[in-house]
Amino acid sequence: MGTFPWKRSHNNSEVFRMTQANWWQHGVGYQIYPKSFLDANGDGIGDLTGITEKIDYLDKLGVDFVWLCPIYKSPGIDNGYDIADYRSVDPQYGTMQDLDTLIKELHRHNIRIVMDMVLNHSSDQHQWFLQAKQDINSPYHDYYIWKKGKNGGTPNNWTSLFGGSAWEYNRATDEYYYHLYARQQPDLNWENPHLRHEMHEIIKFWIKKGVDGFRLDAITHLKKLQTFENVDNPDQASRNIPGIEVFLRELKNIYDHYGVMTVGEVGAVPPESAIKWVDPQKGYMDLLFQFDHVNFGDNHKFDFATKSIPTVRKKLTDWQIAAAKQGNLGLFIENHDLPRAVSYFGSEEPAYRNRSAKAAGLMYFMMKGTPFIYQGQELGMINDHITSINEVTDIDSLRHYQERIKDGYNTQMALHEIAFKGRDNARTPMQWTAGSLAGFSTTTSWIKVADSYKTINVASEEKSSNSVLNFYRQMITIKKSDITLQNGQYMLEKTRAKDLIVYRRFDTQATWLIITNLSNLTYNYPLPQDLASQPYHVILKNDGYITGNQSKISLDAWGAVLLKFE
Fold it and tell me: I want to staple 98 with a disulfide (CB 3.0 to 4.6 A). Which of 29, 48, 515, 548 is the partner?
């Protein structure tokens, strides 16, 4: 049940030791979107058996734990983040026995499992809500948030993150229920102690099944503004509201009692609040994901704002500093909600795709924290080039497209926005081979396979020593085998080059310098004065590294290099 100490042999050469306590601090995580990973039964939907079949792949990659996106019973309005039964496996993914087998086989390979847990809301098809909406006297009615309308309309001006009002009218009880996300995702009422007890028991259920940790979805939204007054800013209604710490500490007591790891989706929390969330003694979770480095656009998440490398550099550094002495960060550049990193941070041009994938990877991987890799990121997968709204499955992308058309935008511009930043980009099937359907399925696929699968796939990456896949394997090996890269201090290096991100990791034992060029320009980077006279070794580089001497490092477009100083 996630409490075993172990040591691991990787590639028959390196031996990694991980202790029972805080195992996640020195590990690497791999996020799996089950619906798109591997279809083992030929129905076009990825499943648990498919994941089990690829454990050897994960083992060879060198990851220490997998984060599994929701596999609970769900109508799939938001691809599983609308849960209809918290204690069951959705039949499209297999059976509970299939999950038991997966957990057992992962543990046999010394890989732990972290489950996605959606505590903020359920599906409107959950039995709790089906009873709650029919009868105001039902014990489940208060499991959700209900208010009477005002002046012939909604209770207040609160809005949904998916657009429009956050209130939906229910005729049977003549009330509105609150939903921060889609109307099919009613928010749970965490003010109700019976609801909290129920959610606590659900967490214990999965821990007893052998789960080693949880990724906590939308965790900053559990507390709502209890005055239910109108707000000037949507965040004032339901994000990090004072009093949420009561709910979070109750949950933390459970995690600590069973010794499981937690990583929270902590959006819109400022760096200066980081310690409040992840302090080892007083915090609410072990790791947090922050999104400052991947959020660009002033108006909405589909905004076509220009990516700013200086902003990325500053945002990442702000968080590194905030968590420098205590607390831990989850490091990432991709997940199931974001465009592919190569398409966003790098270049899809064939001449630069491989190189920029490595540069973006090295840029974040060696920072202080626990790196996460999203499925296909280790191949340098790119966005699919959506050409029709009929190819879009994501509820939020469809909502945004419809709003744009209603507002008078032409169809091509509306489609262009969601094609670039929509969530479907990360949800296309994992590209295993250049064969039919990218080796994901033998018959069909629930979502279109990306056009790039013939050139970007595991089979072809395995054949090349210069592949993105092998670069990621090397990064994992290096970070896990060096205590300085795990626990050493972080310091951003000053540079006038707007496209370079340069930082050092150091302690009394060693100094590492990470230099990455996130552009198609050429740069000469002068080494810091205190390092210029010290010998160094080039430990890892991509094809964009030109040369280096005691005074400067020369990088071509999308060049990246990892140096260790003696």
Answer: 48
For 313, the token pair is 């550099």
So what CATH class is 22-120+193-476?
Answer: alpha beta
Residue 448 backbone dihedrals phi, psi, to 5 degrees: -60, 135
Q: Are strands 489-492 and 370-374 parallel, antiparallel or unpaired?
A: unpaired
The three-state DSSP-derived secondary structure of 141-195 is HHHECEECCECCECCCCCECCCCCECEEEECCCCEEEECCCCCCCCEECCCCHHH
Tokens matching residue 302:
């589909």
What ranges do the domains of the chain cover? 22-120+193-476, 127-178, 487-565
Cα dihedral 264, 270, 271, 272, rounded to 10, equals -120
pLDDT digits (tens, 9 = 90+) for 225-248: 999 999 999 999 999 999 999 999
CA 327 – CA 385 distance, rounded (Å): 39
Q: Which of 217, 334, 337, 499 is catalytic?
A: 217
Which among 414, 428, 438 is positioned nearest to 383, based on CA atoms?
428
Amino acid at 486: Q
Which one is catalytic: 64, 82, 265, 292?
Answer: 265
pTM for this model (two decimals)? 0.94
Q: Residue 444 corresponds to which amino acid?
A: T
In this structure, the number of other CB atoms found within 10 A of the CB of residue 256 comes to 11
CATH topology of domain 487-565: Immunoglobulin-like (2.60.40)
Phi, psi of 177 (to 5 degrees): -110, 155
Is there a catalytic annotation at residue 265?
yes
pLDDT digits (tens, 9 = 90+) for 487-535: 999 999 999 999 999 999 999 999 999 999 999 999 999 999 999 989 9
Task: For residue 104, give the nearest of 211, 12, 217, 255 by alpha carbon.
Answer: 211
Q: What is the CATH number that goes with domain 127-178?
A: 3.90.400.10
Q: How high is the pLDDT of residue 482?
A: 97
